[in-house]
TrEMBL record:
Keyword Nucleotide-binding: no
Molecular function terms, GO-annotated: guanyl-nucleotide exchange factor activity
Source species: Chrysemys picta bellii (Western painted turtle)
Superkingdom to which the source organism belongs: Eukaryota
Gene3D superfamilies noted in UniProt: Arfaptin homology (AH) domain/BAR domain, Dbl homology (DH) domain, SH3 Domains
Name under which the protein is recorded: Rho guanine nucleotide exchange factor 37
Keywords from the named record: Guanine-nucleotide releasing factor, SH3 domain
Gene Ontology annotations for the cellular component aspect, listed alphabetically: cytoplasm
Coiled-coil region list: none
Amino acid sequence: MASSSPDERPAKETPGAECPIYEEIISLDRVEQNQRLAVEELINTEASYVHTLELCVCDIRAHLRQKQLPDIDLEGLFSNIDDVLCVSKRFLKGLEATVSQEPEQLLLISALFQEFKEEMESVYKVYCACYEQALLLVESYKKDPRLQQEIVETLNTTVPHTGASDLSFFLVMPVQRVTKYPLLLQKILENTSARDNAYSALQSAASAMLEINANINEYKRRKEVATKYSKVEHLTLRERLGRLNKHSIAKKTTRLSRLFMHEAGIVPKTEDKEFDHLEEKFQFLESGVTELKENVTSYLNNLQVFLLSKPQECELEMEGAAQQYRRLAGTLHRTIFPEFRRRLDRLVYQPLCSLSETLKGPQQLIRKRLDKLLDYEEIEEKKSETGNVTYDEEATMNTYLAINTLLVSELPTFNQVAMQWLGQILRSLVALQRDLAKQVLQEAEIELAQLPHSHVPLPTFWKMVKDTLSQSGAQLNSFCQKFETVMPSPVVQPLSPAEERRVLSLVNKHGPEKLYQVTSNISGSRDLDLTLQRGQIVALLHEMDTKGNTNRWLVDAGGHRGYVLAGKLQPYHLVQSQKPRMQMLAPDAGAERRRHSYTLPETPKPQVLITPPAFQVVAGYAFTARSPHEVSLQAGQPLTVLEPHDKKGSKEWSLVEVNGQRGYVPSSYLMMVPTQEVGGWSLPAWSLPTQQT
C-alpha cells in the first residue's frame, strides 16, 4: 500500500493542472462564436436592409407612381434611393460570397468595405443631404387628409406586415444603415484577437466607415450653407430698405472698400485658379443658355404672328397654281406649323426655361462666395495682426470655406450635366427643324405634282419662268403708266409756321432746285442716318455717301444733316399763289454794303408765296371701335389727326378726333382727299381714283 500511494498521487493532481488550459479553450470558443455571430449579424442585417429597399423602390414608390398624384413629389421623397439600392445589392452579394471562404472571411470582409468606400460615400452623402427635405415633405403630406389617406392605403396594400403608418419608417433606413457600419465592424473587431491577421484590416475598415460618416456630415453642412445662400429672393425696394441696419451697412461698406483696394492693387487678391476656371466655364454656359432662350422666345413669337395670317382663306381669282397654293398653305397653317410650334415649346423652350432656372442657384452662390471671400480676407488680415478672432468671425471664415469647397467639388459635375442638358436641347431643336423641312417638302411635292409643268425639263421650265416674268413686267409697266394718267393732280399739304420758316431757310441756303420731299417714313438704322417723317422737306447736299454709294444721299433737314435712301426722296417744286400769305424772307444786303465802298444796282428778288392748306383727311373705310380707347368711323367721314402714332410710337395707330370724340383708329384706314382751292407749297398726296359704276 505504501508503495502504491506515491504512484497514485500524481494521477490525482492531473485534473487540477489541466483546468486553466480547459478554461482558455472554452474562452477562445466563446470569442470565436461571438465573432461568428457578429459576422452573421452583418450579413443578415444587410440582406434585410436590401429587402426593405427593394420594397420601397419596387412596391411603395411604384404604387404611388401608378396613382399619378401630382401633389406628391416622388423625386423629393426617395431622392437617389435607386443608386443606394444598386450599391447595397452588390455589397450584399460580396458579403455572401465570403461565407464559403471561412479562413479568409474577415480579410475579405475588410477588403470589401475598402472597395466600396468611395461608392458608399458618393450615394449616401446625396441621400442623407436630401433626407431632411424628404421629412418636410412627409410632414406636409400629413396635413393633407387626402394625400395622407392615399399614402396609408399604399402602405397597407404593399407592406401590410410592417405596420408602418407613414413613409418616414422606410426613408430613415439608409441614414441608419450607413451609421451602423462602423458599429458592426467594431463588434467584429472586439471579438477578434489582436494577433489575428485580419485585426489590422478590420481596424482600417472601421476607420474607413467612420471617415465616410464624417464626410457625409461635412457634406450636409456645406449643402445647408449652400441652400441658405443660393436662394434667389425677389424683394421690393421697400423690403430691401427694411433689411438695412447699422451692421449690414458696415459690412457692405467694408466689402466695397476691400473690392476697391483689389481693383487699385493696394491689397492682393486671393487667387484660386481651379475655381476661376470652373466659374469661367459656368458663366460661358449661363450666357449661352440666356441668349438661346431669348432667341427661341423671339422665334416662337414670330411663329405665332406668322400663323395669324391665313392666306388660304383669301379668294384668289387666278388660274393655274392658285388652288395648289391654297391647299398647301392651308395644310401648313392648320396642321404642320401648329404641331411644330407645340413640339418646339414642349421639347425646346420648356426644358430651356428649366435649365435657366436651375442655373440661378449656382449663380447666386458664386456671388455670395465673392462677398464671403472679401469678409474672409478682412478677417485673415485681422488674425495675422492680433492673433485671434471672435466666434462670429470664425463662423464667417468657415462659411466661406464651406461655399468654396462645395463649388470646387460640385461645379465640374454641374457644368458637365448642364452642358449635356443644353446639348440635348440643341439636338431636339435640330431634329424638329429637320422634321419640319421634311414635312413641308413632302406636302409641296404632292401639290407640285399636280401642276401642268411638274414634268417639264429644267431648261424649258426656266425659259417659261423668264418669259412669264418678262410678260408680267411689261403688264406692270403699262399699268403704272396708265395709273399716272388717271391719277388726279397733287394736292397741297399745309405747312405750320415753323415748317414754313425751315423751308425758307433751306431755300436761302441751297436754292429751290435742291429741295426734295420725303415720300414715306424713314427710320435711320445706321450711323449718320436721319429719321424723317413722310412729307418732310430736305435739301440735297451730295448724291452719294463717303463710300461712293449713290443710293444714300447726304441731305440737310433744316438743322440736322445726315444720310437717307435716295429712293425715299422726290423733287419738290414751289407753287406760286395769287393770294399770298407770307413772303419769303430776302437776304440782308446791308452787310455787303458795309464791306464795299461802292454799290451795285439791286435787282428785284422773286417772291415765293405760301397758300393755305388745300386737303382733308377722311376715313377710307368703316371702322368699329373695340375698346374705350378707340373711336368708330364711317367711310368718307372727315376727321382731324391729332397724333400720327400711339403712345408707344407705333405708326400703325393714329389718335384722331371725330364728332367731338377722341380715340385711336388704324392708320391704314385714313386717306387724304383734295379740296377745291389749290396753291402755295405743294406736297404730293395722292387720293384714290373714283370707282367707276
